[in-house]
Write a structure and sequence with these properties.
Helix content is about 30%, strand content about 20%. By secondary structure, the protein is α+β, with helices and mostly antiparallel strands. The strands form three sheets. A four-stranded antiparallel β-sheet has the order 1-6-7-5. It is globular and about 60 Å long. It starts with a helix and ends in a 6-residue tail after the last strand.
Length: about 270
């Protein structure tokens, strides 16, 4: 599943393609949405926002398209009406005279009035979004200490979109590693220093992943490993997807466990 940084990068690409010209045609696969095609044709897109793993395409006539890629959704930006060769099912197409933004395989698409967006079931419950809002480490610390969250295990807490928006499986493992936190522990079990590191790591790794296209490893180290001939999958992360390989800090073999029904990686010495 794409995580917050991937959705924000997709939103940037979609926004760049469709923001400058009026919509010449819009198409929905779902019959329940097709009456909006006439409503939105001719309108202009003001901006494309994200809220965690959801995308919000804002039109200048008071409407917003909400979409959530879930597990299989994927955006393509192409020259106008130039459809990709794919076995995926087209769900939404937005065309102007130069570009087309095409959403495939997603099943969660809605059209909302602007005033309805904040009350949407996902948008209303999702936590702070580091890539679309000003979020400070102190604000995250307040969440770590709150009664709602501080007795829950980190392994499940970081996947809860009401805690922090946009964090998924690879970011979960990477944040806990950089903060030196064992995934079986809870915020209440951690030292103040660990919690500060977790807050800082959450912000820095989400932003770094967005800026680098998914690299959460030390950027200079990743570049060095790349020059040595390693593949992207080998230098991309600190520990995620590196079961049995040496920790980049102390050489201990990385372990993999199942946590919240998904794979999680950790170093047993760096994260005692």
């Amino acid at each position: 599943m794409p995580e917050g940084p991937e959705i924000r990068r997709a939103a940037d690409e979609v926004e760049k393609a469709i923001i400058s010209l009026p919509v010449s045609e819009i198409w929905f696969a779902f019959p329940s949405l097709q009456h909006y095609e006439e409503v939105l044709t001719g309108a202009r897109i003001k901006r494309v926002d994200t809220k965690g793993k959801a995308m919000l395409i804002r039109f200048d006539n008071g409407y917003t398209i909400y979409s959530h890629n879930q597990l299989y959704g994927k955006w393509y930006v192409r020259s106008s009406y130039n459809y990709p060769s794919t076995n995926r099912q087209l769900r939404l197409a937005i065309h102007n005279e130069k570009k087309s933004a095409l959403l495939y395989s997603a099943s969660n698409i809605e059209v909302l009035r602007d005033e309805e967006v904040s009350a949407h079931p996902f948008v209303s419950r999702v936590g702070p979004d580091i890539l679309s809002e000003e979020v400070t480490a102190d604000e995250l610390l307040d969440r770590f200490y709150s009664k709602r969250f501080y007795r829950r295990k980190w392994a499940s807490l970081l996947l809860d979109q009401s805690f922090i928006a946009g964090i998924g499986n690879y970011l979960r493992s990477e944040i806990l590693f950089v903060a030196g936190i064992n995934p079986a522990s809870r915020p209440v079990d951690c030292t103040e220093e660990q919690l500060k590191k977790a807050a800082e790591a959450t912000i820095s790794l989400v932003k770094q992943s967005y800026e680098t296209g998914g690299i959460t490893n030390d950027v200079k180290l990743a570049e060095t490993l790349k020059k040595k001939g390693q593949k992207r999958s080998e230098y991309r992360h600190w520990i995620f997807n590196r079961e049995g390989e040496a920790c980049r800090i102390d050489g201990t073999h990385i372990l993999k466990v199942q946590a919240a029904s998904r794979r999680l990686y950790y170093c047993p010495t760096c994260q005692k």
